[in-house]
Amino acid sequence: MTDHIITEIKDRVLKITFNRADKKNALTHAMYAKVVEAMKAAEEDDGVRALLFTGAGEAFTAGNDLIDFRDNPPLAADSPVAQFLNCLLTAKKPIVMAVNGVGVGVGLTMLLHADIIYASENAVLTAPFVDLALVPEAGSSLLLPARVGHARAAEIVMLGRKVGAAEALEMGLVSRVFKADDLLPAAEKAALALAKKAPQSVRRTKELMRGDIAAVGDRMALEGKYFGEQLVSPELAEAVMAFMQKREPNFG
Ligand code: COA
Questions:
Q1: Structural domain of residue 52, as residue ranges?
Q2: Is there a domain that residue 216 lies in?
Q3: pTM of the entire structure?
Q4: Which of 77, 174, 250, 251 sits 20 to 30 Å CA-CA off 98?
């Protein structure tokens, strides 16, 4: 079976690749569990000083695997996805994300927890939570309006409006934009540079810049409650059925 998450430690950088290109790197519970395992180990490992996330093929990630989530709703507070979000929230080591294509749902919201975010020119970010009869997660109901302003965040989250790389840069959702071939080398260079810097200084700077994560954690808990309730709702069932049948949902 193909390994849907590839982890590699090199030059004190843990690189995590979402590796399910045929499904646009949509994330299953098993994939989240493997990422969590790697992130937790990295926090304890003095040999890791920076993390780098990217996607295989042409997508960063299409977000939660809709069929896996519908069939096995992650309702437990310690579900793999909840643990992943908590790892992002509490990460002490710097995180670089190389957004090499489409980033949907958590493919956008995870960026709000990263430090350096590089995108390829063809990257497209979208968070169609309401289109899917879901609610925002990963603290994004708090972090996205704070980052881009409520009016722009509402278009992204409520209308599911797509944001291209240039606009994402202008909004402050990403740090820089690169030609596709230059993206990963640039992200690896940034991660390596972080890994070479004074580790305590980097960790403390990240802590200071992130500010009060308790408030984000509280919001994540409320989002998680609503997200779980939506996952088992009839409107979610209709949204997923419509996705599978490649048609518009009908919410009556
Ligand atoms: N969950 C499950 N399967 C997914 C998926 C997801 N989130 N995203 C894509 N896939 C699957 C598609 O069903 C398709 O499978 P198939 O080849 O068996 O039909 C395959 O991945 C390729 O996707 P496709 O839609 O053909 O690619 P595209 O380039 O035209 O579009 C996306 C890519 C990501 C824009 C589109 O697939 C999409 O909108 N996916 C849903 C994203 C989403 O809503 N995520 C949840 C957020 S909470």
A1: 2-180
A2: no
A3: 0.97
A4: 77
Residue 127 lies in a domain: yes
Q: Which residues line ligand 1 (CB under 6 A)?
A: 23-24, 26, 62-67, 102, 104-105, 128, 132, 134
Q: Please report, for the domain that includes residue 66, its CATH number.
A: 3.90.226.10
Q: Is residue 225 part of a domain?
A: no
User: Which of 216, 50, 190 is CA-nearest to residue 118?
Assistant: 190
Q: Which helix (H) or strand (E) holds 159?
A: none
- Average the pLDDT over 58-72 and give the result: 93
| Ligand 1 pocket: which of 19, 24, 161 to mutate (most atoms within 8 A of CB) | 24
pLDDT at 147: 97
> What is the CA(26)–ligand 1 centre distance, in A?
7
From ligand 1's centre to the CA of 106, what distance in Å? 13
pLDDT tens per residue, range 187-197: 999 999 999 99
Going by alpha carbons, the residue nearest to atom 15 of ligand 1 is 23
Give residue-wise pLDDT tens across range 17-59.
Answer: 999 999 999 999 999 999 999 999 999 999 999 999 999 999 9
Annotate 120-154 with DSSP letters as a single string. ETT-EEE--TGGGT----TTHHHHHHHHH-HHHHH
Average pLDDT, rounded, for the chain: 96
Give a yes or no: residue 230 inside a domain: no
**Total number of domains constituting the chain:** 1
**Considering only CA atoms, which residue is closest to atom 10 of ligand 1?**
23
